[in-house]
Specification:
With about 70 residues, the protein is mainly beta. The protein has one helix spanning about 50; strands at about 1-5, 10-15, 25-30, 30-35, 40-45. The chain has one domain (about 1-50). It is about 5% helix and about 40% strand. Strand 3 (about 25-30) and strand 4 form a beta hairpin. The model has no long low-confidence stretch (mean pLDDT about 90).
């Protein structure tokens, strides 16, 4: 899994695996889901991060394993 934050584009991209993206769908304004040829989700892009939360810190990313 890869997480890419683009501060200039104000976007976050989460890539679940490296399979080829066949189709993308905007499920809600600014949230795009990428699918592979098996219709499995392989990526999620969230645009306009700073407008979605007042506390976005592009320099500090935390993850949690449960």
């Amino acid at each position: 899994m890869k997480i890419k934050v683009d501060e200039k584009a104000d976007a976050l991209y989460i890539r679940i695996d490296d399979s080829k993206i066949i189709e993308s769908e905007e499920v809600t304004p600014g949230v795009i889901i990428d699918f592979n040829d098996n219709n499995q989700v392989v990526g999620v892009e969230i645009l306009n991060l700073s407008k979605r939360s007042s506390s976005v810190n592009f320099h500090s990313i935390q993850y949690e394993i449960a």
